[in-house]
Hints:
Elements: H1 2-20, E1 28-31, E2 38-41, E3 47-48, E4 68-71, E5 80-81, H2 94-106, E6 111-117, H3 124-144, E7 152-158, H4 169-175, E8 177-185
Parallel strand pairs: 6-7
Antiparallel strand pairs: 1-2, 2-3, 4-8, 5-8, 6-8
Amino acid sequence: xxxxxxxxxxFALVCAFAATGCRHQPGKLTHMPNTGAPTVQDDTGFRTKPxxxxxxxxxxxxxxFDNMAADRAALAANTIHFAYDSAxxxxxxxxxxxxxxxxxxxxxxxxLLIEGNCDERGxxxxxRALGDRRANAARQALVKLGIDAMRIQTKSFGKDKPATPGxxxxxxxxxxxxxxxxxxxxxxxxPMGGS
Length: 195
């Protein structure tokens, strides 16, 4: 009888915890550089930001990224890769960024789309935010190399576009990347803005 009472009490206690759930303290707001959008830092220290399609982030009044032809092959060899859970650009990738900057400087009618990507680990929301930070890190690096920020657009695909389908570390390392897509004006179109 006593054992049955203890089990009943324990079961009721478990049900009470399940019904109320764990209390989660809201994270601290942290502003990303060069954006007004806050990110949330949770108890684990990871920064999260709801994914926003930021394909028009670089557009200014009178400037557009419409009527541009995407050339994915031109800068494919300059793809940069990242460490796990990082948006920091490695020193080994600086030559690739300089090559991208030179290509943009050589033809001022071109613009650039940077696509940030992640490996399959982590939530969809977290990977969208991480891909966004990776693309914006490359954008900021190119601006420091003299490229007008208004010529650069960024987009995050999170884990949705793996370069390699494997689940081993070698495949994951290939998927943690920024791809650079050179945008050319379509024939008969005059590009606006940009230096």
